[in-house]
């Protein structure tokens, strides 16, 4: 659990158990990506490479809910690490995955050339990540290529827990026939 340094006197987002950082602590170095939800920057925090996503038009309770879901996940190599959140501007600071998102790697104007074994490795890694999420009793409702980050070893890590929700053991599994295909 992260605590703000004592020289910063801002209240936590929700409670003393919340993760919070301050933008002055994360040194932003370069923009990584931009989409309808916000802008991602690569930066450094406590000598770690991090990615900070500044979110647009996000209510603080939604940010808080996503951060709490991520913070409550047990650490695992198939999961992205949350380092902290800020409320102003609303942002999440996560482990930096320099391999880009899976959709960019697959569909960019200059896509990454993947051989069959690498594609199988990525597919297996996505399955392991989803298994981890489900073991934590969460349903990740927006599992698409743009929400899968690749680390430096091309290991996939699911991200964007904004639409996830807690699962119940008694729920039936259903499948939607409407898919977000571009």
Automatic annotation (TrEMBL):
Domain of life: Eukaryota
Record flagged with keyword Cell membrane: no
One Pfam family named in its UniProt record: PK_Tyr_Ser-Thr
Protein name per its UniProtKB record: Protein kinase domain-containing protein
Domain called Protein kinase: residue spans: 26-182
MF annotations from Gene Ontology: ATP binding; protein kinase activity
The keyword Nucleotide-binding belongs to this UniProt entry's keyword annotation: yes
Alphabetical UniProt keywords: ATP-binding, Nucleotide-binding
